[in-house]
Amino acid sequence: MRKFRFIFLLFIASIFVAFVAQDDKLKQVIDNFNKFHTSHTQEKIYLHTDKPYYATGDQIWFKAYVVDAQTMRPSALSKIMYVDLINQKNQVKKTLRLPLTAGFGWGNIELADSLKEGNYRLRAYTNWMRNFDEAFFYNQTFKVGDIRSSQVITQTNYEFSKADGKELVVAKINFKNVDGFPYVNREVNYTVELDGRQTEKGKTNTDDKGNAIINITNNKPEIIKSGTLSTALKISEGTIVNKSIPIISTSNQIDVQFFPEGGDMITNVRSRVAFKAVGSDGLGKTINGYIQDNTGKKVANISTRHAGMGYFSIYPEANLTYEAVVTFTDGSEKKFPLPAVKPEGIILSALERGKDSLLLRVQTNDVYSSAHLGKNFTVLAQSSGNIVYTAAAKLSKNGFATYLSKAQFPTGIIQLTLFNDQMQPLSERLIFNSNSKDFLNIEVKPDKEAYTKRGKVNIAVTAKTAENNPMVSSLSMSVIDEGKVPVKPEEEHTILSELLLKSDLKGYIENPNYYFHEVDDKKKADLDVLLMTQGWRRFNWQNLITNTLSSLNFKPEKTLSIAGTVTNNKKPVVNGNVTVFSSSGGTFIIQAKTDEAGKFEIDSLLFPDSTKFVVQARTIKDKKFVEIVMDEFGKHPVQTPFAKSELSANINSSMAAYIKNSKSQYEELLKNGLITRSIMLDEISVVEKREKLQNSSNLNGGGNADRVITAEELQNAPNLEFALQGKVAGMMIQNGEIYFMRNMGGPPAQIILDGIFVEADFLNTIAPQDVESVEIMKPGALTSIYGTRGGSGVIVINTKRGGGNYTSTNTYTPGLIAYQPIGFTAMKQFYVPAYDKAETKKDMADFRSTIYWNPTVITDTTGNAKVNYFNADGTGTYRIVVEGLDIYGRLGRKVIRYKVN
Which among 623, 705, 766, 878 would be 20 to 30 A from 637, CA to CA? Predict the structure, then answer.
């Protein structure tokens, strides 16, 4: 074995600062780096939710932590954030716009009773974050079980094979009831969709164990990779339960990828090579095997450590190629080529040496060193936009190295980059560092070791630094009944795994909290292998070197605002008059002027969600023939689909106990009048009912009119006047205004657009294709609710609504549009019964699974906070989670449990 001579260089800051001053190229790179991260300050978001999964009808309670990516302190940049609920079809089902106070916000999302069982995700971001890669938005995938169909529990397993270039899938679905009894000899109708297209449909029956076998064929495996299996189980005559089951993959093929440390395998340079074995479902797979050269000589053994990942050491020799001979768990074997060995080059590696030090090593071979001997090479380390270490040395024959104290690095991912004398990046390595001074020590102390059902719990919370100094901190607390909500700690989303790891790494990380739960030497090593295999970029070095900064199109939002552009024949209207008014919650009128680009903005507003506005624009000469286009603040399209590895094919079987409890809880609340359900269906139903009209602003209730005209009747009409003519006896339209015979000679009928009273001649300014429904009410009983304004009849026009609770109608005639931006979402209070008060209902069963939720646990200057609440009727183990950070960006998390007898 060839021995390497290393020059160990230890640099101290004062010496290096003097060196840097003489190196203009390095100084320029550092200046550009600092300039970029000053102008492109980035934010990170974490949502602490009360539970890891939910049922239809539930509330998702969450607290948002928005931090500056460089300092980890609460962000002072954005004052508004967005939270989206996204379904498995990548449709935004709900959007919340929330105010931020010192980087913190909280709220809740109500999961409608009509929501379908399946995989969902929460996406959170600020308007400022839209300037950067969507991969760094906060995303959390979770399961939602359906309490309406909880009588049917499914468990699906897939088997895979190939024949004649086709992928064959056998789906075995077990149907049973919530008590575990199988549905025997029941009819099952099914359809198969691959890549969004129906490929198969059929009918089968369950066997004596409740199993149904469905055969699926993928004729285009080179294009199609996944799909959906929809089943309809006939329990009894007239009673059918529908299930939608993801086909996460149509094969069990495993791919193995190799990642040489530092980027390359180089002749005569011993290095480590990480690898990752990933199945077609996106999850890591266990493999074993060995590395051999093209002569058949074995040079290394390979075996996965965690989540399909591992590493081996290799000394590549000239003129040889290498391959991995891999054995899978089923005993099959396959060969995979390793990356080509380069005849010359230089690589950067990092090795942990004990708990406190790191060996940073630069290695090269004779061919490369002979051409670059004596030239300066620089190692630069940065963390979250901060340069935390720089060192330079002249290249010796075989490279150079240095021992570094890990105490000098902050907590988080550190990017190490090797540059040549022209400051071109040559090699990179990511490491993770944990520094105790960056953590907040949280203590959670109940006043008793064990409690009774409905007993009062008093909790003392303390937050201190590693040096035992008390800190003012913003924390959140959730308490759950673990018997009803079993939790796997490695699968949780935590403030540590999200802000320190996932928020800085692109690509899917399997169970990121595994690396932060009960950390030991193995998990530290596993995390290091993850960083050798995972792709990662928040910026591009080449762009920094050339000072090519990306454009910033989105501003950090400080207040709610209304903005847009006014044009006339596609030319900007300069110094035009814009009036915005609303009658929602009282009359609101405000005016603005357009600038030289025809743009206007009215900021410093405060309005709740669902507020409706009318925007009127005129030229400087008060002409109304202009067009208005409103800015869509915060509305971000869904560009990143669900990762296959995040999907679960067995929703309700994995949370059967929780679904059963949730159903009991909601029935108890409904029985006692504490909640109402306007959409809740029977436990089992064939067809889900829908409201007759969507988004109606009719004060009598949607559909309560003399005549309702739907979108289907309007689709071929050139204008609304044409569409409405002759539809109602006694109604006439003259010069674009509507009159009724019983009130001829009086004023025209009142037109109401999405709840806004508009002028009578507004009718033909509305494009029929934008209308969801028109409700026509003659003068009389139905219009009395509108007072004198309804005396001549009322025409309620309801426009179509886009996704994400956002409506902007910009196709209306010149000078006037209806506009409904996303306002602030009203925050609800988490309900906790007070069993020590007489007015609390004590005869009602308490099925709560989330016992307590508090997003505003604030420790005082002594580092202390106190909370109290009452237990539910569930006995067993209750789990308390407290997370948060202090004003200096120290993160903390504490989990404890107590017994309820």
Answer: 766
> 616 is written with which tokens?
């009127």
User: Which of 607, 470, 558 minimizes the C-alpha distance to 75?
Assistant: 558
What pLDDT score was predicted for residue 277? 97
Count of Cβ atoms closer than 10 Å to residue 615 Cβ: 26
Structural domains in the chain plus CATH codes: 152-247 (2.60.40.150), 265-343 (2.60.40.1930), 440-496+832-900 (2.60.40.1930), 707-800 (2.170.130.10)
pLDDT of residue 537: 60
Three-state secondary structure string covering 734-787 = ECCEEEEHHHCCCCCCEEEECCEEECHHHHHHCCHHHEEEEEEECCCHHHHHHH
pLDDT at 355: 82
Instruction: Name residues whose C-beta falls within 8 Å of residue 699's C-beta, 6 or more positions apart in sequence.
Output: 785, 786
- Burial of residue 493 (CB within 10 Å: 0-12, 13-18, 19+) is buried
pLDDT at 405: 92
Other C-beta atoms lying within 10 Å of the C-beta of residue 469: 10
Task: Please list the residues that pair with 879 across neighbouring strands.
Answer: 480, 897
Q: How confident is the model at residue 162 (pLDDT cuts 50, 70, 90)?
A: very high
Burial of 690 (0-12, 13-18, 19+ CB in 10 A): exposed
Measuring CA to CA, which residue among 894, 848, 855 is closest to residue 870? 848
pTM of the predicted structure, to 2 decimals: 0.83
Sign of CA dihedral 740, 741, 743, 747: positive
Q: For residue 112, which of 848, 775, 805 has the smallest C-alpha distance?
A: 805
d(Cα 67, Cα 385) in Å, to the nearest integer? 13
Confidence class for position 754, pLDDT limits 50, 70, 90:
confident
Q: Quote the DSSP letter at residue 661.
A: H
SS3 category, 490: helix
Q: Which residues pair with 896 in a beta bridge?
A: 880
Q: What is the CA radius of gyration of the chain?
A: 32
In the sheet with 138-145, reading across from the earlier edge strand, the strands are 54-55, 138-145, 118-125, 80-86, 92-99
**Residue 749: Cβ-neighbour burial (10 angstroms; 0-12, 13-18, 19+):** buried
- CA torsion angle for 583, 587, 592, 594 (degrees, to 10)? 10
DSSP string, 383-446: ETTEEEEEEEEE--SSEEEEEEEGGGSPSEEEEEEEE-TT--EEEEEEEEE--GGGB-EEEEEE
Q: Are 69 and 781 in contact (CB under 8 A)?
A: no
Q: What is the mean pLDDT of the chain?
A: 87
pLDDT above 70 coverage of the chain, percent: 92
CA separation for the pair 257, 250 (Å, rounded):
21
Distance CA 648, CA 117 (A): 11
- Residues 6+ away with beta carbon under 8 Å from 683: 147, 148, 149, 150, 151, 663
Buried b (16+ CB within 10 A) or exposed e, 838-872: eeeeeeeebbbbbbbbbbebebeeebebebebbbb
Dump pLDDT digits (tens) for 73-107.
Answer: 999 999 999 999 999 888 898 999 999 999 999 99
Q: Please determine, for residue 690, whether its predicted confidence score (pLDDT) is greater than 50.
A: no
Burial class (CB in 10 A: 0-12, 13-18, 19+), 107: buried
Walk across the sheet containing 43-49 and list its strands.
43-49, 59-68, 104-110
Report residue 797 as tokens: 């026009």
Dihedral sign for Cα atoms in the order 434, 437, 438, 444: positive
- In single-letter form, the type of residue at position 208 comes to D
> In whole angstroms, what is the distance from residue 334 CA to residue 325 CA?
6
Tokens 């407290």 -> residue: 882
The first and second tokens of residue 794, run together, are 């009322």
Q: Concatenate the DSSP letters of all residues of 547-599 into one string.
A: T-PPP--SPPP-SEEEEEEEEETTEE-TT-EEEEEE-TTS-EEEEEE--TTSE
In sign, the C-alpha dihedral spanning 488, 493, 498, 503 is: positive
